[in-house]
Structures are given as C-alpha cells and as structure tokens.
Amino acid sequence: MVVLLANELVTNAILHTEADFDVVVDIAERRVRVEVRDHSDRSPAPRAATPESVAGRGFALIEALAADWGVEPLADDGKAVWFEVRSA
After folding, report:
1. Which residues contact 24 (CB under 8 A, 6 or more apart)?
2. With CB atoms counted within 10 Å of each terminal CB, which end of the chain scores lower, N or C?
3. pTM for the full model?
4. Residue-number span of the structural domain to which 45 is assigned
5. How far apart are the first and last CA of the chain?
6. Which tens digit of pLDDT belongs to each residue from 23-38?
7. CA dihedral of 63, 56, 70, 87, whole degrees rounded to 10
8. Beta bridge partners of 28
9. What is the distance between the alpha carbons of residues 77 and 86, in angstroms, rounded to a whole number?
10. What domain count does the chain have?
11. CATH number at residue 20
12. For 48-63, how does the pLDDT look when each residue is reduced to its tens digit (9 = 90+)?
C-alpha cells in the first residue's frame, strides 16, 4: 500500500510540478510517513474522476487508504505533499 500511495505522489510531482523533487520516508514504530518535496508553489488539486476518466484517482486512493495526508509549505520554497500509513 505504501508503494502504491508513494507512486501516486511521485507521479503527480512528475506530471504537474515541472520541478525537481525529493522523496522522504520516515519509518517509526507504528507508522510510515512519505513526503514528496518539490520546488513548485502549485498546490495539488484533487478532482473527482468519472468511470470513463483515465486520470484523477490518485488523491481518492490516498484519502481512502492513508491514515492522514496533507500539504505543507517548505521553509525555502515549494511544498511537501505527504501521507501516513499506520500499522496495527
């Protein structure tokens, strides 16, 4: 599940930011947090996909499968889009 959700964030960074990005993974005892940090000020725009759509389901997957997710501005420039998955 972590790989699927990380792939969604990385794909969004490639397709929508036109900026370099880094992936940061933080593993704690009962959670994994993945951040994709880029230098774009463009905020993610989750959208609703129709059954015929070939795109637009990434944030729906993240919303459904992650314990939490969000967007945080970076101190220098850009943002971090992140999600957390918790184990039992």
Report:
1. 34, 35, 36, 37, 80
2. C
3. 0.87
4. 2-86
5. 14
6. 999 999 999 999 999 9
7. 40
8. none
9. 29
10. 1
11. 3.30.565.10
12. 776 776 676 788 889 9
